[in-house]
Amino acid sequence: MIVKLEQDVSAAEKEALIEKVKSLEYKVTTVRTQEAEYLVGTGSKEFDIRLIGNSKGVEDVHRVSDVYKLVSRKWKVQPTRISLGDGVEIGEGSLSIMAGPCSIESEEQIDLVSRHLVENGVSIMRGGVFKPRSSPYSFRGVGLAGLKTWSGVARANGIKIISEVMDVAQIEEMYPYIDVYQVGARNTQNFNLLDALGRVDKPVLIKRGISGTIEELLQSAEYIFSGGNEKLMLCERGIRTYERSSRNTFDLNAIPILKEKSHLPVISDPSHGIGIRHHVESIALATLMAGADGIIYEVHYSPEDAYSDGQQTVDFRESSEMIRKMREVFALREGL
Length: 336
Ligand code: PEP
Ligand code: MN
Fold this sequence. Notes:
There is one protein chain. This protein is α/β, with parallel strands linked by helices. It folds into 2 domains: 2-62, 2-Layer Sandwich (Alpha-Beta Plaits); 82-335, Aldolase class I (TIM Barrel, Alpha-Beta Barrel), CATH 3.20.20.70. The protein has 11 helices and 14 strands. Helix 6 (191-198) links the parallel strand 10 and strand 11. The longest helix has 20 residues, at 316-335. The chain is elongated and about 65 Å long. The chain starts with a strand and ends with a helix. The structure holds phosphoenolpyruvate and manganese (II) ion.
């Protein structure tokens, strides 16, 4: 059960409510986010919801039987939209495109990609400066210095930045330079990182774990939400299966299922999802028809020369084509 408290709830009213919920054999956790305060009750006993709903200090109450609570659609039916400022918004009703290289490499690369995005009306740029690589001998990112350069160029061009955070200590150092923190597939269940991201006031895109279930992704999102940060997006990026002809198996099913189960925006990552450059577009378009609110993909001026993930990175010509088609497919879907 979730009880949303009224903003001006008194300490005595809150205490009385906690006791009431406990008396129903529910375990109570108090959650205070940047937006509101909640009591999250976990238990299974049947009870008359009016018992709680009519109490002083209650704004709203719902029974949520899912293992995740605050990110569930059973709690919040209306889809969540997230503002990055300057009119850039993410969520149901609009198509969010986030594009950029797998890794930030050089000032020249940042300039060229930014220009490509501006020319195509794309206002969110992706790129890793801290890279989780399977091998320690692979390129591991340009780090904070590169992020600072990138941020300067992006701000000058009205572009928002999404970049992966791998460690709790990086949250604060990245903070002034980014607009969205990305939690990578290898960190989806790094619970210390998730807790820490609950304490920041910037949006977080959380990717599904490499072998993670949909329910595990939602529970990871619940960590951040219950830690205080409601500005969350979920991202399907493919899972590891027995199939070897693609890098990952993009789980198209996850898109409508996540949309149904959660009120959070759902973003699709076709680049990591299939891992094959000339198929990225078709997966992107398919995921839009499946209901995705946005696409994050990898683009580089010369994918052959990219420091990482070149095999799944499109060039500018392919990217422009993709953007045009994504907008058309999105408009078609919205008009159906
Ligand atoms: C990335 O976005 O470049 C990345 C490393 O993604 P993932 O965490 O999905 O592998
Ligand atoms: Mn990548």
